[in-house]
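Letters spell out the chain; backbone shape is given numerically. Both lines appear below:
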Amino acid sequence: MLNNHAKLVHFFSVANRVGGRKKLQKMIYILQKNRIPFAEKFQFHFYGPYSEELTLRVEELCNLNLLKEEREDKGNYFRYNYEITPEGKDFVEQFELDMPDFSEQVELLQSKSSRFLELVSTICYFEEFERAEAEAKVHIVKPKQKYTDEEMAEAWQFIEELQSSMNVH
């Protein structure tokens, strides 16, 4: 049971800090789709793939003081930022996790906006479809986002970049 918690704390030991719940959800989902063995189950939700399990585990880790949640006032909404605590660093060192090195992928994901990761994760959700059909489905489920052809192309290129960086290691 704690192994799945430890994997998330390990993720934060690599990422150090993640700005926003949506970004966290998308990062874990995209890593999982790139064969990083996170156990959380995802379903399609308002902002793309979402895991209630991930939300609950992060809440538990915050309650255990292994992660710190900070509420940031962004004017018209609050963003919740997460970072590993010193206790979290000690905790993760007690586990021998069978996890590949995904620091390069985390760095790539951290550099992107939540909106972009929402697009990437939604494309990944439709991975069994051909590119044109996947894009059509994205436009159907995300009409308010109004993703452009350029954003779609950038998302596909980003997915390829992530996949090739995983194959190098």
